[in-house]
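Continuing the series of single-chain predictions for the mutant panel. This is the parent chain; the variants come on the following pages.
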Amino acid sequence: MPEILLTAPDTRLSICGLDEIEALRDRSVTHVLSILDPAWPDPAAFAEWGPHVRHTLRFHDIIAEYPGFDAPTRAHVESVLDFGEAIEAVGEPVGHLLIHCHAGISRSTASMAILLAREMPGDEAAVFERLRGIRPKAWPNSRMMGFADEILGCGGRLVEELRLHYLLQVERRPHLVEVIRDLGRGAEIPDSL
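Parent structure:
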């Protein structure tokens, strides 16, 4: 079982989009997981930050293979988990972890959920409860979560809790059904809707 780092009481967890990075500058971020589109430049803001550990992944926010796009792969999810293991291997507390993508809604929230699930095996419902507390508008990328379920040996529990999370998000924000479908991600809308 992984050491408790991200779920420790003193650890701060943040998720944001590109337009919110600058606002987090003075919050003593110690670790950053950046998820960017393949051709997107590194955010300039990080050059002005104090010392921090940063890992960058590049892929598009899609849930299936499309020509000309880089879909999230199992290797990307393994890299997210490797980032968590590398933090743990250092043996020092995580002061403040920031995970960002372009909007701070899908790839970044999936990555945070994956890292939390790594530390909270068998408590998948608590993973999504914690995620909503960090980023209320979270809509994790289902493709990434499917790979994580397999890698972490969740037996479908992580994917089922993701489905329940989507239901709750749509209940709170009914307009999301149309937004998600317009993004070509209608497969993420639970069948009951």
